[in-house]
Amino acid sequence: MISSFTVRRVLVAAAVVLSAAACAPEPAAPPAGAGPSCEPGALPTLTAGTLTFGTDQPVYPPWYLDDDPASGKGFESAVAYAIADGLGYPRDKVTWVRVPFNASIQPGPKSYDLNLTEFSITPERAQAVDFSAPYYDVKQAVVALETGPAANAASIAELKTAKLGAQVGTTSYQAIIDQIAPASEPAVFNTNDDAKLALSNGQVDAIVVDLPTAFYITSAELEGAKIVGQLPLGGGTPEQFGAVLDKDSPLTACVSTVIEKLRSDGTLAELERQWLASAETAPELR
Amino acid sequence: MILSPLARERFAYRRSRARRSTLVALASTVVFAGAVVVAVTSAPGWPRVQETFLDVRIGWESLPAIAAGLWLNVRVLVVAELGVLVLGLLIAVLRTLRGPVFFPLRALATGYVDLFRGVPLLIALYLIGFGLPALRLQGVPNDTAVLGTITLILIYSAYVAEVFRAGIESVHPSQRAAARSLGLSYRQSMRLVILPQAVRRVLPPLLNDFVALQKDVGLISVLGAVDAIRAAQIASARSFDFTPYVVAALLFVLLAVPTGRIADAVAARASRRQGLA
């Protein structure tokens, strides 16, 4: 027989547990109006009046120079300021936060308004975050040491026996798996710096990076490294970088409009010429 | 067995009390679990969290790659653990050598423990994993799993050496005196009398270090080897979804459960022996 006293105690305990567990939900964002208004300098940003960009740490040339995104130097830094300008935020109204990869894509509230860190747009990823319109069409390239076994590969078939490496979480790694399908499992590194180190140590025969990074590595960073060639597009769809925004962010449409405008008026092409080497000089691997 | 009416009454009373406390415990557990579930699932962000951390399809798709990675973890773990036990015991014995003539050996062992207990594992991995191959010497291993295993053995044997040393020093000096007075040499008394007792005493902390090693094996992925955590990271980057990490976590927990049971069994056996001694 359970006494009423016990029942009362259980009920009290339950009430305590429930009231402790039922934390107040965060206030929901104000509902976006019908269609984006994109009022210059007055968007519903994280902090009113300023636009917060996110990017990884460290970031690499030619996308950002000297690991300083706020300098305006480097392709993505320049594009970021062009986007901010188009949205009506001058340079002094732009702030940067450094967020590692996993924090960029977590489901909770984001610490940035938009994030430019060479994020490739894929339908799978688009289920978890918002992507802006693309601001760069990217190709993947194979980098090897001139003295290494993979230096003179002229076709993808010749790379199948090589030990390849790439940075974790990149489409470069995906390109190795999908397009080269090497015999041995590719090595996966935390950063491109580690991948470059392993390449110069001879621990991997070649690494795969996006083409502008490949040009930068071979021209300025690694002695005696060369671009073996570009990889063809996987599945025939061009790979493109887009800015990452929170899922259903009220800013996505405005940012995309600005990027489309930058593309049509030639600004993006000009910035590419300024910061990125042209892609025509690397042979295409078949 | 004949019970007096009074004893029967007492027995029945005790049984009813036990039944009652079981029921109360059950009820409060159900209420508590229910409250937690309600609180979590009624949160405004729950659908989003469910999609990001508990997406069954993505988890299932990532499972083969993560399991293949875990196989590397297990292989490295077995080799590293054997290496750690041997090297750790050797260093502990060196540190407990007596006599002034052995000072350099003792100093060397002490220096080794200080150095490798002090160096963060991640930095040691970078220095050994990327530094050794950079020397371009003949015969230096180039395989990342091998280099990672060597580093783990170096670091963890320093910890385990201290565990063994504590065990050796906890054996009462009278044991050593008795062994020597029976005519056993230093080496024999160490092998037959001191070490068996020392090792038996430090089994629980040894198993603890073993579980810690189990999880630190994943750090060798910074050198490029794809272990379970790295495989989860790759799968997670493909879909911008964290479910693969949850899958990897569950696999690691499953891996740690047998270790925990072994530790319990060892402790139970030790306490039984204590009781019989």
Automatic annotation (TrEMBL), chain A:
It comes from the Bacteria. It comes from Pseudonocardia cypriaca. The keyword Zinc does not apply. Residues 1-24 form the signal peptide. The keyword Electron transport does not apply. Residues 50-279 form the Solute-binding protein family 3/N-terminal domain. Keywords: Signal. Coiled coil: none annotated. One of its GO terms (molecular function) is ligand-gated monoatomic ion channel activity. Residues 50-278 form the Ionotropic glutamate receptor C-terminal domain. It holds the Pfam family SBP_bac_3. GO terms for cellular component: membrane. This is Amino acid ABC transporter substrate-binding protein (PAAT family). CDD domains: PBP2_peptides_like.
From TrEMBL, chain B:
Pfam families: BPD_transp_1. Coiled coil: none annotated. InterPro entries: AA_ABC_transptr_permease_3TM, ArtM/GltK/GlnP/TcyL/YhdX-like, MetI-like, MetI-like_sf. The keyword Transmembrane helix applies. The chain crosses the membrane at residues 21-46, 66-94, 115-133, 145-164. One of its GO terms (cellular component) is ATP-binding cassette (ABC) transporter complex. Residues 70-263 form the ABC transmembrane type-1 domain. The keyword Signal does not apply. It is a multi-pass membrane protein. Keywords: Amino-acid transport, Cell membrane, Membrane, Transmembrane, Transmembrane helix, Transport. SUPFAM superfamilies: MetI-like. It is found in: Cell membrane. One of its GO terms (molecular function) is transmembrane transporter activity. GO terms for biological process: amino acid transport. Belongs to the binding-protein-dependent transport system permease family. This is Amino acid ABC transporter membrane protein (PAAT family). It comes from Pseudonocardia cypriaca.
